[in-house]
Request: fold
Amino acid sequence: MEIMLRPALGPIGAMPGAESDDLLDRAWRDPWTRADCRRVALGMMPGCGFVDDATLLDCLKFEVRRGRLTVSAASASSTQFAPPQPPSKPRQSVLLIDAFEKGKGGGAFINITRAEVVAGLRERVKKPEGIDQGSTSLCGPSSLCYNLLLDDPDTYVRYVIDLYETGAAMLGKTKVKPGESCRSFKPKGIAPVDWIATASLRDSENLMFNYDDPSDAFGGITLPNNLAGWMEGLGYTSVTNETNVWFSKDPEDFDQAVRLLRQGQRVCIFVNSRIVDGQEKVSHFYSVPDHWIVLHASGGLAHGTLAATFWTWAQMIPVPKTGAMNADTFCGNFFGYVAGSPP
Reply:
């Protein structure tokens, strides 16, 4: 994807972080370039219907930070978006997968083949958003692994390989050692690589309940303090756990989550899953948190409505599907967030 933006914003090279954000902010303020910026952002958010300008700008910044786009001056009179060039040397994760593929025999997960793990690892490194919990309740570990793949794919690959080869692994400072029933399960409705990465973490964390079947809703529940602890163990800094498991949160809490996202943090949102499906809750009393999603872009709730994009179930999902959602409706299903700055 490539567009030319006018007018000149100064001859600059590829810039990560705050510098690229500043360039995008200046390009967005200029009426001549805003239309081109909008076209690129909307092209990366298919099917989203109406999306406000703040959300579109956040989308561009997010894609630059994750390496999907680079922003640079093509000349003294134009600015350019273009796909990033591949690295001159293979990433460590690629080398790890290649070496793992050459190994012999099966592993600790007796109903998953080495070839399935190799194919899954390559797909996840290439496309982190492909993680799919399916019908399982593994949304917490899935959200963590999605963010980890964006920030540190090498650690993710080592983690999965160690689990398969030995039945145990360190995920940062967290020791993960799933039980025999988890390791012997033949995954259905979830990719083998996702079962290894997410079910192992959930099963290892449970002291009283095993997670050995995708239909096990209770054993798969991830509490906010668990998710925050995993992030801290992986080296995420300034980790914030602003959640409530009994009462929904306020618009100000979501607006703070959006501010943290704009500062470059990863933000996991705790919700009732009906809000992602576009179903309005019946009442405050009956709405309970049962799902983790990752905030991708939003303009916040300052105007009394929500238009946002979240990652979950292997896709970017606009909420609502079309138009905007009343802030009260969203907040009645919103139970806070866990956020942290990437290592």
Confidence is low (pLDDT under 50) at residues 1-16, 74-86, 207-212, 215-219. The chain has three domains: 3-82, 92-222, 230-341. The two ends are 29 Å apart (CA to CA). Residues 230-341 form one domain.
